User: What shape does this take?
Amino acid sequence: MPTVQKVHIDKALTNISVGYKNEQYIADQILLSVPVDKQSDRYYVYGKEMFRQHDDRRAPGTEANEINWSLSDDTYFCEGHALRTPIPDEEFQNADDEFDLKADAAELVTEGILLNKEINAAEMLLDADSYGEGLVFNMGAGGGNPAKWSAYGESDPAVDIAKAKERIHKLSGIRANTLILSEPVFNVLKFHPKVLNLFAGVTPVGVANIEQIRLALGVDKIVVGSALKSGATNPGRSDTLDYIWGNSAILAYVPPKPGKKVPAIGYTFMWNKDGEGPVQVRSWYEQGRRATIVEAERWYAHKIICNTAGFLFADAVAPLAD
Assistant: This one.
């Protein structure tokens, strides 16, 4: 394989890859990107001493009581993610003028990486083990868990979210500001009577919009995960699609931007390898295959930063389409 692929990054194709984005992917809106210069490193984790009450009484002629704070650390490791696709000479020579095969190839491999990035984020955030004790409702399971929001006569989403907010705040002092809904959960909430009753005479044809749902549930922002994934694992199988974000909802704190001493449900560490940016696209020609190869690569790590900055409503609805 030619060594040029090891030393040359195709700037034009990288620009295509960076600009190509499926608007239905939401991971970047929840796990804000943190550019890093090293593939792996440590970051500091502060304790909760700010919440502790200390005896601050001082008798005449004595020293002030001395207090301290704790500091630990955690690590990240940005794994490499890469895909490639060949463009045979026959395709280049027979393609009509309106086709840009190298750009199409860059979009194909980039989409594949973005899809996996979204799936990885959803799997982490939908895992009950990612949350602190008492920060998960198994909806409809009984035993103190609320009814599913699709049980219109029994459920009250606003009350459930208020309970979740209070639990998060009590454990961390953080006020959750973002509600992540899968497409099936969003569709159920559009018709929920307790949402619609708040806008009686205002909402046409009995369907609430996203802004009305946001106001009814008392959150600053709603993000809807509509992206789909196929269950097929090889070209010979038919594609059965399902929602990446399942039937669940997540209440979380997402800061305006990452920073020191800034809590968040999680971040995505993005390694800028060789200073060429977190997304790199290469292309080269393989004489033996008589084909041009286009390859995209990026390095990232999704990481839960504060497991008390979020709340999981697991299996929140029975989807309308089922």
